[in-house]
Amino acid sequence: MADLIFFGDSLTAGYQLRAAEAFPALLQIRIDALGLPYKAYNYGVSGETSAGGRQRVAGVLARHQVAVFVLALGANDGLRGIPIRETVQNLQDIINQVRQKHPQARIVLVGLEFPFDLGPLGGHRFGQYATEFKALFRALAEKNSLPFVPFLLQGVLGQRHLNLSDGVHPNAAGHKLLADNMWAVLEGVLSN
User: Fold this and answer.
1) Residues in domain SGNH hydrolase-type esterase (predicted)?
2) Pick from 124, 130, 135, 187: CA 20 to 30 A from residue 150's CA?
């Protein structure tokens, strides 16, 4: 069995859901159904920023023979308005650590976009940040030649019936769509 690491925040962890309802567990069902030799590990930590992930990743890498590493951090950076360059540096450092410790590992980068119109909070400045935030993920994926999931929350964001009452975290039905969004890219990575 090869280790498949999902490294992210509350979106990966399945905030307020049972572990079996979070998208990494749903993807394990698909992996098993296809007879692919991967075991998914959910290293989602609610509230985690890219800086926190940068500090935490070495411990995760030391515990596994990583075959595939799915990097899904950045949402909390965006919500806190952390400068784009810091998020980019932190994510690049995580990618570098994975490559150094597990040179054969394939890394998948997961993109995010802002879930709301920030205009009312301060006009164009927030709009500019949101545009740069969205762009940073694709730029990192291209720079590092990584398979890329453009938008984890595609089809879920802003859909009240697919989110918890906070309007931010997907519910169990929402996680089924997150699994679909992830599988669209991950299936090809795991099948090759």
Assistant:
1) 6-177
2) 124
Q: Give residue-wise pLDDT tens across range 96-112.
A: 999 999 999 999 999 99
Report the sign of the C-alpha dihedral through residues 29, 46, 98, 74, in that order: positive
Per residue in 59-117, pLDDT (tens digit) is 999 999 999 999 999 999 988 889 999 999 999 999 999 999 999 999 999 999 875 44
Enter the tokens of residue 154: 């595609």
**In angstroms, rounded to a whole number, what is the distance separating the alpha carbons of residues 74 and 112?**
7
Phi, psi of 86 (to 5 degrees): -70, -45
Q: Is the pTM of this model over 0.90?
A: yes
Q: Name the residue with tokens 């992930």.
A: 53
Q: Of 136, 44, 54, give the one whose Cα is nearest residue 97.
A: 54
